[in-house]
Amino acid sequence: DERTGDPKAKSPKMPVSNNLSEYFKQFLFPENECELHDFKLSFSQLKWDNWIVAPHRYNPRYCKGVCPRLVRHRYGSPVHTMVQNIIYEKLDSSIPRPSCVPAKYSPLSVLTIEPDGSIAYKEYEDMIATKCTCR
Amino acid sequence: SQTLEDEAGSLTSGETSLEPKPLPRDQPLDGENSPSLLPPLLKVLVDRHLPGAPRLHPDSRALRYMKRLYKAYTTKEGIPKSDRSHLYNTVRLFTPNAQHPQPSWSQVTGGLQSMDLLFNLDRITAPEHLLKSVLLYSLKNSVSFSSTTKCMCYLIVKESECSSPSYFRSPQPFTISLQFEFRKNHKWIEIDVTTLLQPLVASKKRNIHIAVNFTCLEDQQNPVQDELLDMAILMAPSLLVYLNDTSAQAYHRWNSLRYKRRHQMSPDQRDLFLYPMEEELTQSRKFSRHRR
Questions:
Q1: Cβ–Cβ gap A118/B66 under 8 Å
Q2: Up-side HSE of residue A103: CA atoms within 13 Å toward CB?
Q3: Contact pairs from chain A to chain B, CB under 8 Å
Q4: Which residues of chain A have a pLDDT value below 50?
């Protein structure tokens, strides 16, 4: 507000693009923080499509990124994670930082042709990562 | 670091030690003896060491049926639909043994037709418990029956000692007669054989002989001509078994149902639901306190 205070005081540099959400995003989600990423594969790439009939494509997803120092509010990490981070930062950097790993999964149904020619429909647990955490 | 094959190897040889033991490279992993508890993705790595493990091709109609079942049970991403309440997480479809002469309809007695079928159920693993089983007939949609056509089907299910039909051990055969109707544009007929198959599968019998006799009547009195029946029922039936795989890596729906309920229930209800033992213990403790 130029009327009050030192006219020379710089107003916060507003982004040229005037795109506020982008501007604030840098404060909310620092770059390459721990989060879920897609990895879509088809069984024909692995040459398994001669016995896996369905699904044709499978996205197991994976977790990648740096674990922030204050992990409780967003990742529901135990206090141990912050302790480990403090040890890494202040006491012994040979202790690994907390890792970005899956916290929750969803199942996957697979239709396969068995060696004897019979056909099997099976539901497998924990085949698709759905949430990441820092541990 | 341990490669996946080595991991698979240690898994298959049942070693539980955690330190990685590199497998001798020259010794191929014996994928055939690996317990089929390996999830299929890992199993293929084990089988990879087998010289191009041969794989029989399934019947195209059977494959088409199972693809429809897959579409009915899963979302587009292949995730099991959560609105299904039944407990089976595995469905296996077996076609009759090829080496057994292709079963043919044979005129037995007035209007009776019989078919001898031999199924090998070796793919059913120990953790898989039978919940339901049906004989699945595929119909030619060109043939249609009047809605008053009713069929009686007599089933004899026996355990067969080995593949050729002449050496069937003669335990008491399970016989059952079922009634069903040919419905319009129904491509499949399912005949429930759960009560017959359950005792055999539960006692680890894996070679099953099923003799099927059909007789169909129109308007309750005129037998349906054999030719029509012959034409309608396209081929030997498949055997469909619905199983509950109790192994750790299989998806257990009721676990996720319990998980959901736990998060929806009020705390006291939740305890009661999840820890009935806890409830009893607290009751008995109160009781003992009063007594004291």
A1: no
A2: 15
A3: 107
A4: 1
Count CB neighbours of A95 within 10 A: 12
* C-alpha span between A118 and B246 (Å, rounded): 20
Extract the tokens encoding B106.
């044979």
Half-sphere exposure of A130 (CA within 13 A, CB side): 11
The predicted structure's pLDDT at residue B155:
78
| Residue B23: per-residue pLDDT | 42
Instruction: Say if residues B215 and B115 touch (Cβ distance below 8 Å).
Output: no
Chosen for mutation from B59, B88, B89 (greatest number of chain A CBs closer than 10 Å) is B89
Q: What is the ipTM of this complex?
A: 0.74
Does residue A66 sit in helix, strand or coil? strand
B245-259 tens-digit pLDDT: 999 999 987 766 555
- Residue B99: its pLDDT value, please? 39
From residue B231, give the alpha-carbon distance in Å to each of B139, B145, B184. Answer: 9, 11, 15
Contact check, Cβ <8 Å, A109/B69: no
Chain A partners of B69 at a C-beta cutoff of 8 Å? 121
**Which has more pLDDT, B60 or B186?**
B60
Q: What is the DSSP letter of B118?
A: E
